[in-house]
Amino acid sequence: METERYSKELDVAVRLVQMACSLCQRVQNELVGRKRDEIKSKDDDSPVTVADWGVQATVSWVLSQYFSSDNVSIVAEEDIETLSKKDNSSLLESVVNSVNACLAEAPTFGLEGPAKALGIQEVLEAISRCNSNGGPKGKFWVLDPVDGTLGFVRGDQYAVALALIEDGEVILGVLGCPNYPMKKAWLNYHQRYYRLMSNLSSPVYGSWHKGCVMYARKGSGEAWMQPLVHDYGNFDWQNRAQKIQVSSINDPALATFCEPVEKTNSSHSFTAGLAHSVGVKKQPLRVYSMVKYAAIARGDAEIFMKFPRAGYKEKIWDHAAGVVIIQEAGGVVTDAGGRPLDFSRGSLETP
Ligand SMILES: Nc1ncnc2c1ncn2[C@@H]1O[C@H](COP(=O)(O)OS(=O)(=O)O)[C@@H](OP(=O)(O)O)[C@H]1O
Ligand SMILES: [Mg+2]
Ligand SMILES: [Mg+2]
Ligand SMILES: [Mg+2]
Questions:
Q1: What is the pLDDT of residues 92-145, one digit of tens each?
Q2: Which residues bind Mg(2+) (predicted)?
Q3: What is the pLDDT of residues 161-204, one digit of tens each?
Q4: Quick one: which of 202, 277, 334, 344 could link to 136 by a disulfide (CB 3.0–4.6 Å)?
Q5: In a domain, 117, yes or no
Q6: pTM (2 decimals)?
Q7: Could you tell me whether strands 169-177 and 303-304 are parallel, antiparallel, or unpaired per DSSP bridges?
Q8: Which domain holds residue 308?
Q9: Is residue 334 among the annotated active site residues?
Q10: Measured from the CB, is residue 49 less than 6 Å from ligand 1?
Q11: Structural domain tally of the chain?
C-alpha cells in the first residue's frame, strides 16, 4: 500500500533524531557552561563542535545497522579532517565519549545500540562514511547533524535535520528542534527568562523547557510534531504527537516573516524592502537554523525568506527535511525564481 512505504525508515529516523537531540542537549549544556575550547572553526570560519561530529557518527552508525541490506548512502555536512589532527586527540575523545553515551541510551528511544562501546576508529569511520555525492538517481539520506551551529554555541536555537531522498525527491523529513517548545507561548516565556538571566554563565535551559521533533512523509498530506523524549522521560511520547499545519493567514498586513539571524547569511535590508513592498508590517522573526522551517510548518509565522550573498551555494542538507515538512503541512517552498528546490544536483548545491 502506497501510504505504508518507508514506514520503517520514518520510524527509525524519528527515534534517531530524538536520540541525537538528547546528545546535543548534553553537549550544549557543557559548551555554554564551560568547554568553549571545544568549539572549532572551519575554513569558512563557521563553528563546528563535538555535537556536529557526534550526531553525524551516531546517525551514520544506526542507519547502517538498520538498513545494511540497502547499502546505506548518506550525504552529510561534516568530515574527519579536523578530528584526525594529532593536536585534537582530546576533542576526538570527547566525540567518542558523546557517541557512546548517546548509543547507550538507544533502548530508551526504542532503538538497538552496539553490544560494546564504539572505538575511535569505528567513530571516525561512521563520520567519514557519510560521503555520498547524492545526485538524480537512487536513494540516499541527507543529514545536517547540527544546523545553526552558531545558535547552538550561543545557547540558542538549532536543529538536527535528517531526510531521505529518492530519485531527486525528498521522501521523508525529520527535524529535531531541542530548544523550540511545543507551543510558541512557551518560547516567549523562555526568551524573557533568558534576558533576565543572561548575566549567568551557567546554562539557562531548565527542565521545564520543551523541545519538539517534526516529521513528514511526502504525499501523505500530513505533518506531525511530538515532544522530545528527553523532556518527557520515557512516558508516552509517541502518543503525544500532534498534526501541524501552516498558518491560514493570507493578509500580508497580518503576516510575520522569518529570516536568518546573521546578516552575512541573508541580506536583512533586501528582505525588509521586499516585505515592505508587499505590505508586510510586522517585525521579522529572526531565528537560527531550520527552526525557521519548523516555525512556518506549524503556523508560528507565515513567510520564510533567505537571500544569501552572491556566490554562496546552498547545501541540500540545509533544506531537505524542512521542505517536505512544510509541503505536507500545506505550505509552498520555492527558490527566488519561484521554482521548486532541486535536490537532484549532488551533495553541494541546490540551484
Ligand atoms: N554565507 C552564507 N550564506 C548563507 N548561508 C550560509 C552561509 N554560511 C553558512 N551558511 C549556512 O546556513 C546555515 C545557517 O543558516 P541560517 O539561515 O539558519 O542562518 S542563521 O544561523 O540564522 O544566521 C548554516 O548551517 P550549519 O553550518 O549547519 O550551522 C550554513 O550551512
Ligand atoms: Mg546547516
Ligand atoms: Mg550543520
Ligand atoms: Mg556548519
A1: 999 999 999 999 999 999 999 999 999 999 999 999 999 999 999 999 999 999
A2: 77, 144, 147, 318
A3: 999 999 999 999 999 999 999 988 877 665 555 555 544 444 44
A4: 344
A5: no
A6: 0.93
A7: unpaired
A8: 252-328
A9: no
A10: no
A11: 1
